[in-house]
């Protein structure tokens, strides 16, 4: 692809469809659903067939920035484009276009959702290259359509018209109509017609054309993007982040399909034939995995005794055991803090369960996969993890693991007693004016109000025991995100 | 009851029927299935309606001795009769008879299984008092029969005959026939006949009569019991334990019903009318609990969304959440390390699942409810618990909780580094020749080879970090059991 072409991976996502495995803190794109890599990692790997890593960008929420970089160590950290909040795909891609244009006004964007599965990667790469070439001409918003193989009611459809051009063996077709998720009967007609394609959510266009068309069809969004772009051009620091946050939060949540593609005349579609699945719900596992002779899909440590046609997802890598006995047609998902047992046929309507949990004040089970075992709670953090092994009236005890290269900044103003016992790793402990090297066996009791900071050279593990004070504990948990910040571009 | 009467609670049990809640290390009788007390605690409470705590005995396996005493703090420790292994009810009650006669040759035993539910406790106490009075005459083995309320195929039945005597308003009837678990049709006939009773497993007899009849019908068992009794009379120490172990292991496993009651002529039955349930499988929960309007029985933190006729047992007291969505007729049991999803109708045949797990080398899930969460493993101990939060090449980190009144004795001969950080509680730390008071914040690094001992006055919590050495770690885990030992009588 030419040097102006960049791949933009959209890695937003609410983390609801694969609950309880996915959470708000760990949405679908970060999950390993098939094989050893996450959907995001697979998407990144496919992107590298098209462009080098320096020209791959990932748009994701601020809170998933570290997780993204951890899963994609080859991705330049500056290529993570942080979204302050979720506003659907039109603002997401508008922001990406603005960031890309700040680096290269002639940029062409190839857009890939992070959470889809693709098979037939040669064809995939060929189709995307064709799309990028058409897009680079600057005339079209190019969409990729997939020949439907079943009357799926969960997807959007694109009806194609005449051939506009041929590129690299691919037909580029005019678009006659977009249809959002159809009814079952309509989906059957679409499948039979031969001129309807699934809207894959993969696109290619010049950033300049995209922004011009946004200005035409979504002028409010375009104006906000101008202000964001101006702040970024001025200085990509805290001032920019402030503008980004303010403008982005004010955007209407709207999809690029509904907001732009269905309205603009400049849209074409390339009918593609590689294997594609948007993995929209748990039942998709039956398409991407090979069920056993009784129709069961087993993941993790799961044992089926006389069970049929079930999806059984045990906790992977843990020691929990999932056993199904004499049951049929169930979806069972076990995690560190939630087990879901559902009628498999209802896996697409999981939202009802999540709504019920919200009604019951159990929303925390949507946020994080927090582990609590008779007092020992394991919380994954961007910088490592905390094991809360005791929270009592008199003290809070935690084991804190800080990964190499990260630092932890905290101030415990009102704590009456705090003891740190270092077990492993090297680095620096700052205590007010003093600095101590971290080493195995270092044990420090910290007077109330002393500022202290742990910086890990190699992975550091220490025990922390402190008087419980809610305010302090909250500050500790938040410390990293605030200290490091998140930046776009 | 007269001063010769003692209650013997049989608290053996393999821990299989309520798997995965029950385990070999934590059988059914220790479970809280209804209300806030375990079945054993409820049985003990009922026993106290009949005799004072000094005359209540509990027969249980050596390994459950500490658990028994923890659940029954009022029980004199000397009243736990330890079984070296499980040999069914005839050897169990033979041993109890021998131990009771060593204290009182005229003893009358009232036998109560530890794992049944009873309602109507006035009637219960009245019937057992009548049984004890009849038994004290020394002529009869008295059984308690329950008027059946359904054609249960899981129980044994007793057909009664003519009235032998009347005691305290109760008829004492001759026994015509014992029938083990009948077929469904036979059970229906028994229910209709009016002269069949459920064999409740509750008995009363003079220990001397029981042993005389054992000698007649199970002479091998009786002879072994003589040798055990002789060793106990000589000295109730290690020599006795050695004899007990050798003799007991050689006993044939046989039930008192099959081995004696069905053969002896000296058996009567008191038809009783209180509420009784042997809680033989998970589905018994539907009889002992009140299902919600959709027929669901919910325990722990469980949420049913559009679910019907399910038994949903979440982990109690933990933070795990169990969610059932759109399912019917399921038994779901969540624990710290296993989740079972079964057809409720198959809850009585759980053994098939356990056999399958044994075949697959997953027997450890039958033994202990061990908790392992990404490195943090919680192990319940007789003296408290250990949270293993890290096992690495370089160190083992544990949080050790020692309950008040217990002590922990350990020697880590070859450890290179061991640090203890005390967080809570009071007591004494012995280090070689020195003794230190335990207090919050005490941090001690122990040189290799130094004998140390922790004695807890109040509950003590401390962190222990040591160089991993398998031998040492094993010794630590075993330390308590060896120090205290287990003794019968």
Structural features, described:
Two copies of one chain form a homodimer. By secondary structure, chain A is an alpha+beta fold. In chain A, strand 19 (376-381) and strand 20 form a beta hairpin. In chain A, 28% of the residues lie in helices and 33% in strands. Mean pLDDT of chain A is 87; it is low at 412-416 and 468-489. In chain A, helix 3 (89-103) packs parallel to helix 7 and helix 6 crosses helix 7 (219-234). In chain A, the strands form six sheets. Chain A has a seven-stranded antiparallel β-sheet with strand order 18-19-20-21-28-23-26, with no helix packed on it. In chain A, strands 6-9-7-8-10 form a five-stranded mixed barrel. Chain A has a four-stranded mixed β-sheet with strand order 12-14-16-17, with no helix packed on it. The longest helix of chain A has 16 residues, at 121-136. Strand 17 of chain A pairs parallel with strand 15 of chain B.
Mean pLDDT of chain A: 87
Percent in helix of chain A: 25-40%
Strands side by side in the biggest sheet of chain A:
18-19-20-21-28-23-26
Structural class of chain A: alpha+beta
Question: What is the strand tally of chain A?
Answer: 28
Largest interface, counted by CB within 8 Å of the partner chain's CB: A-B, 65 and 65 residues
Count of DSSP-assigned helices of chain A: 13
The global form of chain A is globular
**Largest sheet geometry of chain A:** 7 strands, antiparallel
The low-confidence runs of chain A, each spanning 5 or more residues with pLDDT under 50, are 412-416, 468-489
Percent in strands of chain A: 25-35%
State the assembly state of the protein chains.
homodimer
Radius of gyration of chain A: 25 Å
Termini Cα gap of chain A: 22 Å
């Amino acid at each position: 692809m030419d040097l102006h072409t960049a791949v933009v991976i959209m890695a937003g996502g609410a983390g609801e469809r694969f609950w309880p495995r996915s959470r708000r803190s760990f949405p679908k794109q970060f999950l390993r659903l098939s094989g050893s890599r996450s959907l995001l990692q697979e998407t990144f790997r496919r992107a590298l067939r098209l462009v080098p890593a320096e020209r791959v960008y990932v748009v994701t929420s601020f809170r998933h920035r570290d997780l993204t970089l951890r899963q994609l160590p080859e991705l330049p950290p500056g290529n993570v484009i942080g979204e302050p909040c979720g506003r659907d795909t039109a603002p997401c891609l508008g922001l990406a276009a603005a960031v890309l244009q700040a680096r290269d006004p002639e940029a062409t964007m190839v857009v890939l959702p992070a959470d889809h599965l693709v098979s037939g990667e040669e064809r995939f790469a060929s189709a995307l290259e064709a799309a990028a070439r058409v897009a680079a001409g600057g005339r079209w918003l190019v969409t990729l359509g997939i020949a439907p193989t079943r009357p799926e009611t969960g997807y959007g459809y694109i009806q194609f018209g005449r051939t506009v051009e041929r590129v690299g063996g691919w037909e580029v077709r005019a678009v006659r109509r977009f249809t959002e998720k159809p009814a079952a009967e309509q989906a059957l007609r679409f499948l039979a017609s031969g001129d309807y394609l699934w809207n894959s959510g993969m696109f290619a266009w010049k950033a300049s054309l995209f922004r011009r068309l946004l200005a035409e069809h979504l002028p409010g969004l375009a104006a906000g993007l101008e202000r964001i772009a101006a702040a970024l051009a001025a200085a990509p620091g805290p001032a920019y982040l402030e503008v980004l946050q303010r403008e982005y939060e004010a955007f209407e949540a709207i999809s690029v399909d509904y907001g732009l593609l269905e309205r603009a005349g400049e849209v074409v579609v390339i009918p593609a034939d590689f294997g594609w699945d948007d993995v929209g719900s748990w039942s998709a596992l039956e398409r991407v995995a090979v069920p056993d002779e009784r129709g069961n899909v087993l993941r993790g440590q799961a044992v089926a005794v006389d069970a049929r046609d079930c999806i059984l997802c045990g906790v992977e890598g843990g020691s929990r055991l999932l056993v199904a006995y004499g049951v049929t047609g169930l979806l069972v998902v076990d995690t560190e803090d939630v087990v879901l047992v559902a009628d498999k046929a209802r896996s697409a309507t999981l939202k009802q369960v999540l709504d019920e949990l919200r009604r019951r004040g159990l929303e925390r089970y949507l946020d994080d996969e927090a582990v609590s075992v008779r007092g020992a709670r394991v919380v994954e953090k961007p910088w490592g993890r905390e094991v809360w092994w005791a929270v009592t009236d008199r003290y809070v005890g935690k084991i804190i693991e800080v990964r190499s290269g990260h630092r932890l900044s905290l101030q415990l103003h009102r704590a009456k007693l705090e003891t740190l016992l270092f077990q492993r790793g090297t680095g620096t402990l700052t205590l007010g004016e003093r600095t101590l090297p971290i080493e195995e066996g270092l044990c420090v009791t910290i007077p109330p109000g002393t500022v202290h900071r742990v910086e890990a050279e190699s992975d550091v593990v220490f025990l922390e025991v402190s008087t419980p004070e809610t305010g302090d504990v909250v500050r500790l948990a938040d410390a990293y995100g605030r200290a490091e910040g998140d930046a776009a571009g």
